[in-house]
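[Meeting: bench + compute handoff]

Bench side (C.D.) handed over the final construct sequence. Compute side (W.E.) agreed to return the predicted structure before the next meeting so the bench team could plan truncations. Sequence as handed over:
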Amino acid sequence: MNESKRYNKRNTYMVLIAAGVFLLVNKAFGVYIVVALSSMILGLHNIVTQSGKKGYILLAIGAIIILGNNFPLVIAIILLSFGFFYLRSKKMHPDDSYIQKHKLMESMKWDKSPWVLKNMSVWNIIGEVNMDLSLAIPEQKESVVILQGIIGDIDIVVPEDMGVSVQSSLMFGQVDVAREKEAGLLNKVAWQSPNYETSEQKVKLIVSYIVGDVDIKVM
């Protein structure tokens, strides 16, 4: 009985503390920020513990709430992201012989039939990429593919006989490259297959999003 009372008291104190913190944060930042931060924290927790899509949805909801109440910040983030994309594209493709695509929203599904692999740079505010490199017909020995934007869901399959180099960076989300997984905040992964230097065909993947789920499988 005493244990039960102590447990109830502890719960009461925790509720009071939580209520106090909520009121302080609400006073300082406003209810929208509280809701947004709560959504993003729950989303990160879900990503780390369950690796489900729900976490990314919660992250996106939180980000939209924050950005929706700070329109100039939204524009600034988009302009910065696009500016960095342009500079990176020029650096990685100095000879201008590459495809450059930028759209608000795009779904690229190159995983059902053969397709031509060219040097390319793709930027989206919201992007979905399904790419099977075992179906790709490369134009050159080494291809450079840049995928960048605000929110991205990236799934890429790389055949074992193709050399691959990956540079991936996310502010929020999960990166899974050849079974090496990073999840949470500020994820940066650099990985290169053992056969990269000796492969007849190789691809360099550069992936960068603010919120993303990146899955690159070597099969």
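W.E. noted at the follow-up: Residues 78-218 form one domain. C.D. will use this when planning the next construct.
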